């Protein structure tokens, strides 16, 4: 399945996280850690990544980068790694 397809789980979870981010801003929850959904390529993954909004913003800035829990990199290029999260970049042309 090509990345970016509406049915691509990565796209679905990315859209969900954008809703979480909007709600977080609407509720004025501040800059403390917030629960985002793991954006890895596994359809049934419902893991939560508890990170400050600034980390989520960094994952969004990259365009093709995604926020995942450690261990869910699935072969993608890791651009940022910590005990709480990884930010990965999708490899070009990789088929799921
Ligand atoms: Zn995952």
Task: Explain what the structure shows.
The chain is an alpha+beta fold and 96 residues long. It has one domain (9-89). The chain is built from 2 helices and 5 strands, in the order αββαβββ. The chain has helices at 9-26, 53-61, and strands spanning 34-37, 48-51, 65-68, 77-81, 86-89. The chain has a 3-stranded antiparallel beta sheet, covered by helices on one side. A two-stranded antiparallel sheet has the order 1-2. The longest helix has 18 residues, at 9-26. The protein is globular and about 35 Å long. The relative contact order is 0.18. Residues 38, 40, 42, 45, 47, 68-69, 72 line the site of zinc ion.
Strand content range: 15-25%
Tell me the helix content.
25-40%
The tally of beta strands, per DSSP, is 5
Given helix and strand content, the structural type is: alpha+beta
Name the average pLDDT: 85
Task: Note the overall shape.
Answer: globular
- Head-to-tail CA distance between termini: 6 Å
Query: Strand count, sense and closure of the main sheet?
Result: 3 strands, antiparallel
What's the alpha carbon Rg, rounded to whole Å? 13 Å
How many domain units? 1
List unreliable stretches of 5+ residues: none
Strand arrangement in the largest pleated sheet: 3-5-4
What ligands does this structure carry?
zinc ion
What is the H/E order?
Answer: HEEHEEE
Q: Number of helix segments?
A: 2
Draw up the topology in text.
Elements (H helix, E strand, L loop, with lengths): L8 H18 L7 E4 L10 E4 L1 H9 L3 E4 L8 E5 L4 E4 L7
Antiparallel strand pairs: 1-2, 3-5, 4-5
This protein binds zinc ion.
């Amino acid at each position: 399945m090509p990345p970016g397809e509406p049915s691509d789980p990565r796209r679905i979870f990315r859209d969900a996280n954008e809703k979480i981010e909007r709600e977080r801003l609407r509720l004025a929850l501040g800059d403390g850690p917030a629960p985002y959904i793991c954006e890895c390529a596994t359809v049934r993954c419902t893991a939560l990544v508890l990170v400050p909004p600034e980390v989520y913003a960094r994952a969004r800035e990259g365009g093709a980068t995604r926020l995942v829990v450690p261990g869910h990199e699935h072969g993608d290029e890791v651009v940022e790694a910590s005990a709480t999260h990884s930010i990965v970049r999708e490899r070009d042309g990789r088929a799921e």
